[in-house]
Amino acid sequence: MQLQMTDALHELGVRPDTLTPSDRASLDRDGYMIVPNVLPPAQAAAMAERLDTLAVAEGENAGKDFHTEKGATRLGTLINKDPMFDICFLHPRGLAAVNYLMEGDFGLSSITGRAAQPGEGLQALHRDNSVRCANVLWAVSDFTLENGPTRLVPGSHLHPQSPSEAMENAEARHPDEIYVIVPAGTLIIIHGWTWHGGTRNGTTCPRHLISAFFMPRGNYQSIAHRQLTQASQRRLSEAARFVIDHEPAP
Ligand SMILES: O=C(O)CCC(=O)C(=O)O
């Protein structure tokens, strides 16, 4: 499998130097890496707008193909909803980081959107799963101190406990947490064990994030709908289909 994965990643543009020494050091030390301005602002804005139009079109069904959350508009299965989101799970820097964190054993568990609504969006600090996993997050709105940026606790991927075990109240501030204040178009890759969460959006506009979540091959989150429509099967290259490891829709 490793050889096939290596070939597929090469096809998708991943090279030995795609990750910088500083990227690797951040992933090892902090449990995340942040690369500002990977997508041009107009592309990020188009994605945020598309999340909003999809949310309107899906209405009360929004998120039911993944997970619903009070105060946040969630959308599942973006892979089948618009090709504009392909870059979110196929960007070489993201794939190189996932490959580094997962040592070659991964597939795409889900590709989803989360818009924290005004006055809402605070999440408890959490890990994404108890098994090894990696999350490629895209800020597609500007993340400001006011609009509910993601918070991260550096080095917490190495902690023996999850936040709910180690903290009395995982919604509370953590003394070591940092806020991801970045422009729209920023790529944030986290080890799935890094303690993180959304914070409260104190503005009047939604704050948008896209998440491409990777898990060990064959061991995907049960909440994720992982069937590829025929249009997605036709659109995606063989290498992309290998990496995402989805089932064809009947
Ligand atoms: O929206 C964010 O800032 C983080 C979202 C998150 O961590 C989650 O939904 O699990």
Please describe what this structure looks like.
The longest helix is centred in the N-terminal third of the chain and has 18 residues, at 41-58. The protein has a 6-stranded antiparallel beta sheet with strand order 1-7-4-9-3-2. Strands 6-5-8 form a 3-stranded antiparallel beta sheet, with no helix packed on it. The chain has a single domain (23-88, 108-227), classed as q2cbj1_9rhob like domain (Jelly Rolls), CATH 2.60.120.620. With 250 residues, it is an alpha+beta fold. It has helices spanning 2-11, 21-29, 41-58, 86-90, 92-102, 163-166, 230-235, 238-244; strands at residues 32-35, 72-75, 107-116, 134-139, 151-152, 178-179, 186-191, 196-197, 207-215, 227-228, 247-248. The model has no long low-confidence stretch (mean pLDDT 97). It starts with a helix and ends with a strand. The structure holds 2-oxoglutaric acid (AKG).
What is the number of helices? 8
Cofactors, ions and other ligands in the entry? 2-oxoglutaric acid
Provide the spatial order of strands within the biggest beta sheet.
1-7-4-9-3-2
The residue ranges in which pLDDT falls below 50 over 5 or more consecutive positions are none
**CATH architecture name:** Sandwich
List keywords for this structure.
single chain, 250 residues, alpha+beta, Jelly Rolls, 6-stranded antiparallel beta sheet, 3-stranded antiparallel beta sheet, globular, binds 2-oxoglutaric acid
Brief description of this entry?
The protein has 250 residues and is α+β, with helices and mostly antiparallel strands.
